[in-house]
Amino acid sequence: TAPQCVPSRGGLLTGRFQSRFGLESNRDSLKGFDKQSTIAERLKKSGYATGQIGKWHLGPTNEITQHGFDDVYAKNANRPCFANYTLDGKTIEMQQVDDGL
Questions:
Q1: What is the Rg, in whole angstroms, of the alpha carbon atoms belonging to the chain?
Q2: pLDDT under 50 in the chain at which residues?
Q3: What is the extent of the structural domain holding 70?
Q4: Residue of 69, 26, 74, 78 whose CA lies nearest to 51
Q5: Per the domain annotation, does 44 fall within a domain?
Q6: Cβ–Cβ under 8 Å, residues 27 and 57
Q7: What is the pLDDT of residue 55?
Q8: Domain check: are 31 and 53 in the same one?
Q9: Which pLDDT value is given to residue 1?
């Protein structure tokens, strides 16, 4: 692992030491990560449904499905999330909820 989120996430999702594909800090290029196979891609090939929930921070959130995730509810940083999400390959627009739960 690494003391920064990008390399740690990259290593966790690929199962590889992040330095082996050039992801050593939050400022590094994601080109090495983009060439790696993720656990989501491997699970999807085996027939599993996959999803990503929470902070992504490994490139644009609109590209998460390219890394093997079917359903996505994610944000790209550690700020409050008011984002659209993807469900069954379709973008779901954020809805205003006035009365809470």
A1: 15
A2: none
A3: 49-96
A4: 69
A5: no
A6: no
A7: 82
A8: no
A9: 67
